[in-house]
Amino acid sequence: MPPPSVAVIDIGSNTIKLLVARQGPDGALQTECFDSRDARISTGIGQANPQLTRESMACGVAAVRELLAVALAFQPVRTVLVATSAVRDAQNGRTFCELMQTATGHVIRILSGREEANLIGSGLTCDPALAGLQDFYVFDLGGGSLECLAFEKRRMRQAASLPLGCVRLTEKLFPAPAQPLPADAAAQIAQRCTAAFHSADFRFDLPRGAVAVGTGGTPTVALAIEAARAGSARRENPALLTLAQLKAQFHAFNALSLAERRKIPGLPPARADVYPTALATLISVAELGGFDCFRHSHYNLRYGLARETLDSLPAV
Question: Looking at the structure, do residues 61 and 183 belong to the same domain, yes or no?
């Protein structure tokens, strides 16, 4: 009999993601299924009094119900639902949780910023491709927040959750996303990033040679666009995203209208409105930290939650 599996549903600001995983023979996490739905429940999160809209909550509930049906085929012994920045910050976040429980029978665990950052860090250490890294930073950019971590000798030294999500910043700074971004968009975003890092006292002081790891939808999409430009499958390209590539994409896309951005190969149309903001945010992070590239990993929050959930199961 194979070891038990668990299902994790991560209700993110842009995307709702499912991971079904079990512990492999070598003790490493073994992915049984990964699926996702674009839901954008964070619409409205950038307003002075953030509220989840009725439409976005309904979309979120529908997406979770679909993913629960997918997970059921793998017979997980435990299913965990978590929500992050959008639900955490919305004034009616609890209403969304109540709607979800009524519709699915599952309780949503709303993660604090620190819990979210710690679980991202835990998930990243499960990535076999990064097993050789000792000193590194992690930046997970979502729709509502940017999670920042620093590891020294694979032990977490710093963790911060900053209000720099791409949906949040787009709504605050660029309320007409159908239009090209203003000429000073990059400067506005850089100013916000500098202030947020300073306020959180996040320091770039790891030993020389520390690398930056990027997770979340933005580096995934950026690499998909690079692969589309090169005419190759995503898996054929190295999981390395350079600052030069980010800047080239930003300068190519920020002057485009939303309709034009939606035609870019590799860019999901649902992300086209916030993608230039997301690019400018990663560029600002790289310049603040002095990084010339990001290593990419898919092992973020959902893998940390899967590890935590598997570790909490009673011994067989």
Answer: no
Dist. CA 260–CA 48, nearest whole Å: 30
β-bridge pairing 136-141 and 211-215: parallel
pLDDT, tens digit (0-9, with 9 covering 90-100), for 207-248: 998 999 999 889 999 999 999 988 865 554 468 999 999 999
Q: Give yes or no for a contact between 150 and 156, defined as CB atoms under 8 angstroms apart.
A: yes
3-state SS, residue 279: helix
- Could you give the 3-state DSSP secondary structure of residue 128? helix
Q: Compute the distance between CA of residue 61 and CA of residue 96 in angstroms, rounded to an integer.
A: 8
CATH number, domain at 266? 3.30.420.150
pTM for this model (two decimals):
0.88
Domain that holds residue 55: 5-114
- Give the pLDDT band of residue 50 (cuts 50, 70, 90): confident
Structure token pair of residue 58: 């309904």
